[in-house]
Amino acid sequence: MDLGNGLGATQNMLDAEIQSFFDSAPPLRSSGDVSEKLEEFVKRNSIASGNGGARRIVCVTSGGTTVPLEKRCVRYIDNFSSGHRGAASTEYFVKAGYAVIFLYRKGTYQPFCRSLPDDPLLECFEFTDESTVQVRHSHSEAVRRAITEHRAAVEEGLLLKLSFTTIFEYLQMLQMISLSLRSVGPHAMFYLAAAVSDFYVPWKSMAEHKIQSSSGPLDMQLNQVPKMLLVLRKDWTPMAFCVSFKLETDKHILLEKADAALKKYKMHMVIANELSIRKEEVVAVTSNERISVHRNKSLGVDDVEDPLIKLLVERHSSYIKSFDP
Ligand code: PMT
Among 129, 175, 185, 243, which has the highest number of CB atoms less than 10 A from its own CB? Predict the structure, then answer.
């Protein structure tokens, strides 16, 4: 990519960092299977939807990436993300008629199961006699809804779930998804809610075996993970509508940082959220607006993702229209 002058040099450095990240990453074990599923999913949903237009496809990323410290991994660096935002948002996107590629961290919240207890198998079911298991009455409504809504989304071909654990898997899969969504043009959206590691140990310099505590204090150099947002936006899927997130714990710097991310990575929108109130309120930041979005249980708005996804669907519609001749 040639942007001219200093910008071009910075871009070339970033491209080199990204190349080196991918070159040194361990190959994705399931890459054949992932690309087959992606190809089939995008092809099916690119064919006209019920109302005659091409279906919109959104890639929702969810949960946190891990950074392994050893190749035969015993220890890793992790982060707090539960995947609730991504799972809830996926449900609202499906309700709005989108096909969703849900790229999620293994073991985090799943769409349509958020109201089930932590250990659903043990808490939702009971034996009526030695060989018959039934759903406990107290959970029957939640289980019925989870099964029905999930099955409908999968059977209608509207939900493709792909899982990751490490930062290497996440970024390789994000690149595969981006490239496969190119063909959908402006009907594609990225909703990047995953909490992505900022630092990592390059595979080449990673210890093979468990690091021994008998060797004394651990002195380890972590490299910076190159931000892939700009390259996703400009090279991988240039016509997609791109929404990223900005998380801070200090509310005084949050909106400033969101504005900076909007400009730096050329996002169409950045969702700013403060850690402690992330389930109550977010601010959607665009080049000329700051829109506060709230959950309000008393008004029947159970999740902040409900009005947030409505806003995004509306903005995505205007974006698609702007490509009309
Ligand atoms: O999962 P929950 O518990 O429900 O919490 C939801 C959430 C708080 C994790 C979510 O709402 C959120 O804010 N996700 C983004 C968190 C984050 O990593 O923010 P950041 O400021 O570090 O990164 C900003 C953006 O850059 C993100 O869209 C991220 O996907 C992207 N990024 C980050 C680091 C990196 N090396 N490469 C990236 O592309």
Answer: 243
